[in-house]
């Protein structure tokens, strides 16, 4: 794949869904080309850039071998994204199960000092209650 195409989803550039047929890609390109052709939009400086990007995406997706490899790569990315999202959820659940009294929290000096101070205040309060 060309270096400048790696940053884009080629199907989205052409306004298509991933895995669209070559015929659908042709129709999508025709629609985008008519919309962003520099002769139709001489006042729009981005029209040339968008038209060239759409043309590169179209030429790439017209090759059945490149298209098949690209579709497989999109599928791999989707699975990887799902697995990363799944891993993040599992990590969050693990933290939630551990709760506030995790090993990290229990070994935290500030937390331990706070607990000790609370216990001391509690004992001092109730020791004075007995004297009343």
Quick structural summary:
With 132 residues, the chain is an all-alpha fold.
Topology of helices and strands:
Layout: H1 10-13, H2 22-36, H3 45-62, H4 64-98, H5 103-106, H6 109-131
Helix pairs in contact: 2-3
Number of domains: 2
How many alpha or pi helices? 6
Q: What is the CATH topology of the largest domain?
A: Helix Hairpins
Mean pLDDT across every amino acid position: 81
CATH top level label of the largest domain = Mainly Alpha
Gyration radius, in Å: 30 Å
First-to-last CA distance = 85 Å
Count of extended strands: 0
Question: What can you tell me about this protein's structure?
Answer:
Helix content is 75%, strand content 0%. The chain contains 6 helices and no strands.
Features:
single chain; mainly alpha; Helix Hairpins; 0% strand; 6 helices; 132 residues; 2 domains; 75% helix; elongated
